């Protein structure tokens, strides 16, 4: 059993062989039985037909069934019929062939009478029946004695296995039959059985050999892609980058290969992003810590005086550090599914007007118009008000960073199938098309020069927005055109 669990190829080959063997056994048994039954029926029917031909000759010569086949133990002289049916007077009293008998009473096998005179042709030549053969008259009464049925017994033709209607000039004169107890076995029949058995055995051996060869070929074809996948998995396990595994066909193995290639590609990207994220976290955490610790150390050593301005710099750096830590904690909770929502029915217009009010002073200071546009009779949407304010506030904050003076930011709410579409549109610088798919990744910055220390964000805002929106069951997406602006859409929040 251990061997079977170690090799899929061996399992497949043995499975093919076993299936073929079972099929061949079933086929062999059925073929043997059908062929043997057909052969037996043919033999027995031929015996009845031969006996019927002899009986007709007797009836045509005599016009009656009287005296036909006196039966075993009857008649005098050398020519009396024998139960086995061989010509009388033979060496052992046995018949030479089934269905044929010896001459009538009073004649020797050469048709001569005991006194040596030349007699007429034996009208019953070939009529001595086997013990299961007999003749019925037109009333289905036995007129030819057998070992099973006595003379004169009336039979039902339905009870007989093999029959042959006897016709003379188109008129039914009787029926030749073989009784149901017939089960003759002859050397010819045994030889036929041996031929059938040998043929089936030879076919089984050839079929089994072919099934093993075919199974080996098919097993190799099935397991070869799996072997390639195994090598690729082992390489991936040790962190080695590799070429995609070649896909062949459209079967389940090809689907598995395609899925593995996609997973491998995603793992490689995730590893690159993980390393980049660690570097970004170290950088974003290190910079404010370095600034704050430098000021504190200098003031502690008396090199700098602890002025209000310098204390405010330290405080700002620590606040930046605190915000970054809070963002990371929020993302970790969202990833772990531990970020809880307090859902309420909120009017979209109220939500957007609250955001407008919060950023109105800053927008006015930058000479940017901040407007709200909503469809009439919008349904209320179920969401966490504070979390969604955080998402929309982050989007508006980004738009204010990248929209020049005299530009416009529009907060929109539109009715859609099954929900409400919230949008933040700006007339800013836009996002390059090649960077648009990555803006919701963590620590990704469209402008890599804008880090927290020089006025940029941490690169976590849009990643947090996506996590919160998806936690609501919604979807966030972005469209942008360079020098025309960007639109961030939040879909299906109802």
From TrEMBL:
CDD domains: HAMP, HATPase, HisKA
Protein name according to UniProt: histidine kinase
Transmembrane segments: 200-219
Subcellular location: Membrane
Taxonomy, superkingdom: Bacteria
Location of the Histidine kinase domain: 280-494
Organism field: Deinococcus roseus
Residue ranges, annotated region (Disordered): 63-134
Primary location group: membrane
Catalytic activity annotation: ATP + protein L-histidine = ADP + protein N-phospho-L-histidine
Record-annotated HAMP domain positions: 220-272
